[in-house]
Design brief:
By secondary structure, the chain is an alpha+beta fold. The protein has two domains: about 140 residues, Jelly Rolls; about 45 residues. Helices cover about 50% and strands about 25% of the residues. The chain has a four-stranded antiparallel sheet with strand order 1-8-3-6. A four-stranded antiparallel sheet has the order 2-7-4-5. Helix 4 crosses helix 5 and helix 8 packs across helix 9. The radius of gyration is 18 Å and the shape is globular. It holds the Pfam family cNMP_binding. This is Cyclic nucleotide-binding protein.
Amino acid sequence: MPEAILELKKLMHAIHPLTEPEWEEFAGLWKPFSARRKEVLTRAGETEKYLYFVIEGVQRVYYFDEQNREATLVFTYAPSFGGVLDALLLQQPSRYFYETLTPSAFLRAPIHELLPVISSKPNLAFIIRQGLAQALSGVLERLVELQCYSSEEKFRQLLKRSPHILQLVPHKYLANYLGIEATNFSKLINKVRI
């Protein structure tokens, strides 16, 4: 998996350069991991133990309530980080599930090894802060979309942000992510010029 670690290095260095010793220590924490399609990696009620770096496949974080309602919150795919980040960083039980939608390959690092390294390396701490700031920005944008946009506007924004998503993610999950009935989602695909 040498090319996977190079993808991780490329992503990290695009945010902020690391010294070679910093990179070596950080890179040593990551181990290959794979999962089958529809495998739940983190369950609600569990504490997230790993930060994932997605090499291939598509995953989602979703919420499931006592009334059998489901809400897809986010999709992850290469090259990006994955997992239930709030549960990971706060080390508290997750309120969400992290599931593979397709067979998936990752690098993953245990949080109990990752946090001390990040704490002792200012460049790594900066990269993590930048990543969290970007994630928060995305969440705030998504809240605006969910509260203010029509179904068609939400669909257009999704395609603008991730034009390849229709080929990656089954449409029923995209409909759920947008808060649209599956039949209305099908109509949108036929109506909106892609």
